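A reminder before we start the practical. When you read a complex entry, don't treat the lines as separate problems. The point of joint prediction is that each chain is placed relative to the others, so the output describes one connected object in space. Small molecules and nucleic acid strands, if listed, are placed in the same frame. In the example below there are two entries. Take a minute to note the order of the lines before looking further.
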Amino acid sequence: MSSSSPHALTAHWKKFLALGVVALAVVWVFACVGVAHHENRQALSVLVGSLFWISILIGMLLLTMITRLFDAGWAPLIRRNWELLIIALPVVILLGVVPLAFSTDFRHALWDWTNAEHLLPGGHAVGHDPILQAKSWFLNEKFFLIRIALYVLVFGVLAILLRRWSFAQDTDRTAGHTHRLHAVSAVGIPLSAVALTMLAFDCLMALSYHWFSTMYGVWFFALSIRLALAVTVILTYKLSNGGWLDGLLNQAHRHVLGCLMLAFTVFWAYISFSQYFLIYTANIPEETFWYNIREIDAATGLKSEWWGVSMYLIFGFFLLPFLSLLFYRTKIVAGRLLTVAWIIVIGGLVDLWFNALPRQVYDKSTPEGFVVTPFLTPSLFLDLAAILGFGGIVFAIYLRGAAKHETIPVHDPRILESINYHE
Amino acid sequence: MNERNERIHGVACTFRKVSDVFHAAEKVRDAGWKNWDVHTPFPIHGMDQAMGLPRSPVPRLTLLGGVTGFITGCLLTWYMNSYDYPLIVGGKPYWSVIFPFPVLYECTILFAAFGTFFGQFIFNRLPRHNHPLFDLPNFARVSDDTFMIVLEARDPQFHLDESRNFLQSLGGQEITVIRD
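Here is the predicted structure of the whole assembly.
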């Protein structure tokens, strides 16, 4: 198999690995230098870059399990690519989030609540913060590190099991593997739901630990599935033009992916708006400040550049993909679906920026006692470098896997149904 | 047949196998027929393409309904809360797009559903209480084990004898003339 021409792609894995290693080395050097100078923006690049891929891969892990559990007839052809990718999920967490969390300097730089001497807006130290003391049963460093380790474990074990029995079926042709994978998925979906919710709490919500939203995990889930579907569309477009899905992927496969992208675009908007709406309606200062620093420049009272980012999310990440995907032709014409997928990938990055970057920094010269970190900084390029770096690793793992295993699950009981899938 | 019913609805012809009716449908499509239909006991995948059917126009009415609903919701909340009886609730403005958003999208969904439901009534020409095909003695069998192609008389290509011969050439089994 691996010598035939559709599999020539797999030979590029070394290039992806080289790209990943070089880009990650550069980003980590910047992050280390930054932390040595008491700056955390470069470390945030590592966090954003890894979370971008963690989000995509969690989405793919969930899609793998959901299509397994519900016996989706269209899925096997596409699912094999998710199975090849998801093993990169624990790797990305290990290369990104784990060093940030386990190194004291990075932890203190990124997660203010871990640093008792950190000064909050107004000049109080974190160590004397009654809000943190009340939350300390959850937000304490020991439990935090245990949780981070558990994410690697849960996602890693699920990825290994979902791959092992699926690959085993390629050689021994046993239908029993499909039943075993049902069981793994039935247990894995609730486990992943808890893990991804806690991961979103720990890696993003806790960056601004006074704030809380019970919908945050669902928002991260919606974002993950949207990004996973968009990357799947881009990947399968490439694979059906000279790759191993050439001639296999048809209009109905694009249609089903397009319908799912539309559904999760609406779901993302529903969750994001509901979170905003509840906080807006309740109007409690502990909650509203999170949106205020993303809208208003505290010094002047005018709209800040973060307001522009919010508007981009509404119009560029929701309205544009939503209105485009309403049309049947957008879902079936490969080029149009590809365009929408790229819009969603870019929007997903902007959404991560919107959630991760704005921070209140103590500054006693301003009336509010803080300034908000700006959006447009050269460090955005470092974020892109981090995304390239982690992406290089992810695709090196993917192509290496594609060279070793069947790229089509040839003995999946539903493979014929998947290949002949129609609307 | 009944002499009072002289107007002809069309010609029906039965098939025994899916592949027969499928290929026959393709030939009817290629011959350029517009007013004709295929009746089967179960959905046959790919029949839409074999018949050359266009996409349903119903989604257009769904979209129209949705847009109407959104505008209706805006007018409703604006009129009540900001114009007819201006009232400040919870420190929010008289009217903005944010606080009444649940009303706006519920109206959007409701009117889009109306557009879909009544849209399919319009495009399916419902309600319709009887159909000439129901008088056909063997029509009940197309819900059991028979497939049927009906060429309708209102099609410009329709000519009783030629159409009958055309159906015969497609491999049809039982050919019946349907009267209104």
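Discuss with your neighbour: DSSP finds 17 helices and two strands in chain A. What might explain this?
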